[in-house]
Amino acid sequence: MRIIKLLFSAIIIFLLITVTGFFIARESLLFWGTSKIKNSLRTLTLSKSRDSFISQCKQLGSTFVNGEDLVTYRLRFLSSNEYLLEAVCSQFSFDPILIEQVVLPNFVTKVPGTSGFILGSRPNGIELQVFSEEISKISDAIKIDLTGLSRKQALIADNGVIISDGEDRFIGGGPVTSCNGYGYECCQDVSQTGIGDKITGLVDCEKSCYSACATRPVVLSFNSNPLFDPQARSLEITNEATVEFTYVADAGKATTVGGVLDFGDGKKLPISGLAGQSSHTYSCARASCEYTVRLVLEDNWGVESAETNISKIKIIVRK
Question: Which residues 6+ apart lie within 8 Å of 302 measured at CB?
Fold first, then answer.
């Protein structure tokens, strides 16, 4: 009995030490991460006060336009934990001058949705978080929500000086950066669909930068017999001729795939599986008719495949 009590006490002490160590590490890492951001903002502020890059910008050909600053200083994230300090010359925003490249401490990341800081603009800011990705993975593995153990802190700056640690209305307003720099994902048009918030107007991911991406089924091949013209993906047949269609699909991360084979003349056929075939007879009451056959897949989550050149065939029926 005594041994059991000692063992139980040892377990309790171990758990207390572990939990205490976790919270100490969390706060220490957050302090370290915020200190790095604050030091970087000081570096930018000093560069601005010393006019460190004005001569370089003038050599590039920058000129004063409509009262704009000749040089703009910014802290721009490339990913959730890496950022650049840059001097941007007027009229040369596409080619900024690199001042410094910084990586946040391990386990410290920027909350997705923001991009960094711009000196001289209205107050703008970001949020840092600690252990967010690690806790999310553990929560998914054990099916228990532990996200409350993660710690976040807002950093709001006005002209490079931290003015607040929690005014959400000032979060954002940073420089335009890459999709990954916002902490978002660039979804592949054919094999993925975007989920959640969307950012547009980015150079690297103009139309499909989302907070998350989900896989969608993909039509790998869609053929006909008789064989269609491979360049135009069109097939010319006579009236009342029968065409056989075959397809092969990829389900992505889904477990099942179904869908519809739309023959284009008002007739549709439900399909299921990653491969299949069917036939259809085409009629035309005029001298010529055109139909477009479309294959639309849908996975078990209700996500549809994208329409591509591969997923459709033009059928031309002549008498």
Answer: none
| pLDDT per position as a tens digit, 84-123 | 999 998 888 788 999 999 999 999 999 999 999 998 868 8
| Residue entry with tokens 């502020």 | 45
Tokens found for residue 114:
């923001």
pTM check: above 0.90: no
Residue 178: CB atoms within 10 A of its CB come to 18
- What burial class does residue 149 get, using C-beta atoms within 10 Å of its C-beta: 0-12 exposed, 13-18 middle, 19+ buried? middle
Q: Is the per-residue pLDDT at 165 higher than 60? A: no
Domains of the chain with bracketed CATH: 23-183 (no CATH), 216-318 (2.60.40.740)
Eight-class DSSP state of 311:
G
Which among 176, 179, 182 is positioned nearest to 205, based on CA atoms?
179
pLDDT at 292 over 80: yes
- How long a stretch of residues is the chain? 319
